[in-house]
Amino acid sequence: MLVVFANAQDYWQQQVNYNINVSLNDKQHALKGDLTLEYFNNSPDKLDFIWFHLWPNAYKNDSTAFAKQVRANNKDGAKRLQSIKDKGYMDSLDFRVGNQKLKTEADPKNIDVVKVYLPQALEPGKKVVITTPFYTKMPTYTSRSGHDGQSYMVCQWYPKPAVYDRKGWHPMPYLDQGEFYSEFGNFNVNITTPSTYIVGATGMLQTENERSQYIAMGKANVAAKSQTNKIAYKPSGTSKTLSYKAENVIDFAWFADKNFVVRYDTLQLPSGKVVDVFTYHHPNGNKLWVNSHEYVKTGTRSYSSYIGEYEYPVVQAVEGPKNVMSGGMEYPMITLITSPDADELRLDGVITHEVGHNWFPMMISSNERQHAWLDEGINSYFQFRYEAEKWRGNSIFGNSIPKELTKRPVNEFLTAIYGVFNTIPMEGAIETPAAEFTNEEEYGLVSYVKTAVWMFAMEQEFGREKIDQAIQAYFRKHKFKHAYPEDLKATFEKELGKDLTPYFDLLKKRGTL
Known about the structure:
By secondary structure, the chain is of the alpha+beta class. It folds into three domains: about 1-185, Immunoglobulin-like (Sandwich), CATH 2.60.40; about 210-365, Zincin-like, CATH 3.30.2010.30; about 380-510, no CATH class. Helix content is about 30%, strand content about 30%. The chain contains twelve helices and 26 strands. It has helices at about 65-75, 75-80, 210-225, 290-305, 345-355, 360-365, 375-390, 410-420, 440-460, 465-480, 485-495, 500-505, and strands spanning about 15-25, 30-40, 45-55, 90, 95, 100, 105, 115-120, 125-135, 145-150, 150-155, 160, 165, 170, 185-195, 200, 205, 240-250, 255, 260-270, 275-280, 315-320, 325-330, 335-340, 365, 480. The strands form seven sheets. It has a seven-stranded mixed β-sheet. A five-stranded mixed β-sheet has the order 20-21-22-24-23. Strands 7-8-3-12 form a four-stranded antiparallel β-sheet, with no helix packed on it. The radius of gyration is 22 Å and the shape is globular. Residues about 1-10 have low confidence and may be disordered.
């Protein structure tokens, strides 16, 4: 448990621990749950209320911030909204402390944000225990959470406190373009489903008979390079309850499908630590998922060497349905991949990118909505290095890279790749809030690619070894903490021994760097 008191040091952060019992109804495509959370006030301030996210309400109608953004930023936005046949929502909430019902106040602009008033001010260094039932109707899958028939991507699904940090409260509506900011905490989650479902989730599965089956199935599939389960899953009874534990994480997601093919392996890191590796895919999906466990392993190993060792006990990837953004979405210890048509390079690249998010923003938590580059762009910089080292390739350019270039050393290859990147029109400034980009293409190019160009420019000046030392110091200092751009700047300046104001000023520059 992490408790950082304000009077002990300048830095502080809140802690939220969750106990959740949830049941899946696969006829109604709905979740019924009970939440108990411990909220630790490690700030120097008295808190009279806590903002909560109720993100399933983003799918409730066509007037939410999510719906408005989809309509405005996508050329087929109206059509996409019409495709959401099952509208999502959250209700049946009853926030309480003990037996005392808590007053709530709806956010005037967003139905997926609510203010929950505490029975008395929460003093610094104290905690409050809040309980509520909840009912979540899963929408038709289109963004990050939902169902595709009886395949479930259960993400942003429970009532979740907003972040309160040194810059105040950060309540925000769910958006398609623009991600999240979350408090660290520990999760104990009990998931009840019909017995025929195979489930992958954040954290370590504590239900030993289920875990043993997944491992046996996964090992057999890896050994046979099988696209289907060589050992049939054997459910017992009509329903089951699976228990998961996760520590020092900012979120919890889970995925359930009756036809998941399981792959299992282990990864030993240089320290000797052994990490479980699971992947889950569809028998009729992208056939390259037979290699998915290897992509997860090599990605985790490479990022551990670039940035710092992977801290969690398990790392996983799940094949999801295709969506309009086509790529993936990260959660602690598990990632959803929605790239059904990817070739080997691109599938490895997207899995590694999403696994890489375990470093940014899972182990170093940042406000992705405000500073998307701090998460996506730095991650892309390491993804492009990984692809160059392993494939002499780049997932953006794919097969268009001249063959003679693929025979050059890694540094020459990357210099050429970044030279081309820097010719791509990217008008927006890197330091632009995600929601302020007028379309998804500009958001992607600037937050991901332009930021990677910015990182590579520093690498060219200071050398890769020094940049790696700086990022590793940043990781050590801010692991399991919240970090802002000024924290990255301070750490880099200390490690590189130079005023980096000119570089950080470039983050606000429009056009080519």
